[in-house]
Write a structure and sequence with these properties.
It contains 26 helices and five strands. By secondary structure, the protein is mainly alpha-helical. Among the domains are: 98 residues, Serine Threonine Protein Phosphatase 5, Tetratricopeptide repeat, CATH 1.25.40.80; 217 residues, DNA Cyclobutane Dipyrimidine Photolyase, subunit A, domain 3. Strands 3-2-1-4-5 form a five-stranded parallel sheet, sandwiched between helices. Helix 1 links the parallel strand 1 and strand 2. Helix 4 packs parallel to helix 5, helix 15 packs across helix 20 and helix 17 packs antiparallel against helix 18. The longest helix has 21 residues. The chain is globular. The termini are far apart. 47% of the residues are buried. It binds a DNA duplex (15 and 15 nucleotides) through helix 7, helix 13, helix 16, helix 22 and helix 26. This is Cryptochrome/photolyase FAD-binding domain-containing protein. It comes from Violaceomyces palustris.
Length: 671
Amino acid sequence: MTKPARVIYWFRTDLRLHDSPALKRALDLRPASLFPVWCWDPNYVYKHRVGVNRFNFLIQSMNDLSKNLTSLNPSTKLLVVRGEPTELLPELFKRWNITHLVFESDPSAYGRRRDSKVEALAKQVGVQVVKVQGHHLYDPVEVVKKNGGKPVLTMSTLQKVIRELGEIPRPLEPPENLPPPKLDPSSSSEGLEQILGELSESLEGLPHYQGKGAWIPPPELDLNSSELGGPRQKETDCYTSLSGQDRDFSVPTLESLGMDPSQANTPIQGGETQALSRLERIIKDVSYVSKFAKPKTTPGKSSEEASTTLTSPYIKFGCLSVRRFWWEVEDCKKKFKGKPNEITQTPENLNGQLLFRDMYACAEYAVGDVFGQVRGNKICRFMDWYLPNHYDDQGQKIEPRPPGDEVSESRLKAFREGRTGFPWIDCLMRQLVKEGWIHHLGRHSVAAFLTRGQCWISWERGAEIFDEYLIDWDPCSNPGNWMWLSCSAFFSQYFRLYGLSSFPSKYEGTADLVRKHCPELKKMPDKYIFEPFKAPIEVQRKAGCIVGKDYPSPMLDEKEAKEECMRRCKAAFSKGLYGDNELVLKGKAEAILRKEHGIPDPRGGGEGKGNKKGKITDWAKSNAVQPKPEQGKRSNAPGTKRSKGEEQEEGEEQEEGEEAKPSAKRSRNKK
DNA sequence: GCCGGTGTTGAAATG
DNA sequence: TCATTTCAACACCGG
């Protein structure tokens, strides 16, 4: 009686066939034609910082998905259409005679905005929209509702709320077959090529999708352009035609994005196939799964031999279902033969990690669009960071951001490029750029260093760098973790800090990670590997690495900077301002806070206490600009002056003995 | 409103 | 060598 369904299944956060509740709903409609669509959205190509490694992972995942679709039915594949979904989908509805649009809900702020627009447009033309939660263990909408609309800020709150939501559904099997994307299901055309040809033809004449250049913004508006420090080296040509250059709806390439594939240096390979084989490998190790304790896993490994599961990129793109992971872990633990008390508990265990991801999604959902920034963000404590976002009178973010003070800008640049002079930080940042991944505790180290630990630079800037380079970047977890580490939200014990040498020293493999990513330090002995500036000059010579020449001098004094940052944390905490406070919205909070603890504004303008401007500027000049040899003399950089050693010349007698001293000294720090 | 327990992942001292 | 305690500059939650 009712006419058969013609369904667009819109892939976005769910590049998989297994355990896809949304895809199941699409197939439950028993469609005569199913169009598996991906919209190659220019908002992601131009208006979002995305590096080569993440695009590479996405492209691989799309290709893998397409292959898997074809293996279910040789007459189908992923149909990549180039354009903005809000403009494109309504056209597809008409030209393909669509009855239903089905997709997995995307809980991010941009996703929600885009989807509600698309939903409204679909409604106008009588297309039914079916959206299904599948990206998280629990639906953030429901969790927040159960929590009285309040953002979920602690694990215990989340656990309490979800106890009432019942069990996580068991994962679904992948479908066994799929209807083809045929324009006319009764026609006898079966070949994929023929079907694609007809589809492509059906899109002829659409205004502004054809024609070179339609989608290419000027470089100053393209966040990935090389002009703005991004990876795009040439003009894109992925928008010259709606269905791709060969009119076959193929997945775009890095080249078509104007990016150099040889820059995709990561060993992390995308796709559902990879994800499932990785999961299988993990689950085989019952002891590893059962005894997993995140804080005990080492950050000192490259992604190929990570101490954690490295499933985050796959979960982020939906190559791996989070519910499948959850249940495989649960089932695996039942096979554990050891003592029951060896099985780790939430939150440190594997499933706890997944719950954290849910927690951040719930926080993001309740806070809304401003989750990734300080201004207007009600859960985010206001601190008078350097290099914050800037806003105009209407509260619109000013892009590009006006330059900040010189010292902070040069520190941020050194941080991004991995030449702060602190090997632990530098190796992690270089690993990030190269591999698109660092261990969670490595992220903690660099995030604390940039913000409340040493540099006092806004977490917004750090989050942006991660956004560009991390393959597993997630709109909820990333800002959430930056707020956590900067003591802006979720966490507040600012006196707990990560030492730049003490922290990595606790873990296995960290020194080798430094040597791997900072080859200048290859021959530096373990004793000085995290603090080469403390090595006596002859040790440096022997290692073939003179600090200040072959490897940068430290850009600040760890201890001094830490003490200053703690004073500022204390001031900010006592003031108790949050992002939604009137003073913050009006841009007055910073001046008030600075006045209160006597920090000149802008930095360097005057004599702040403990603000050794001269030294820092020296560093900025000598390090950021030219890697001046400067042997001996200043090889121990600002920062290493020991309280008792006075300024001895060369490292000369910076003898061994001193190694013991710092700790003795540190312990004196109480009254 | 007070109190004590707790909070995924600090560092140093202690046993 | 390792696990536990202490220190301690916080804030939230529940009783």
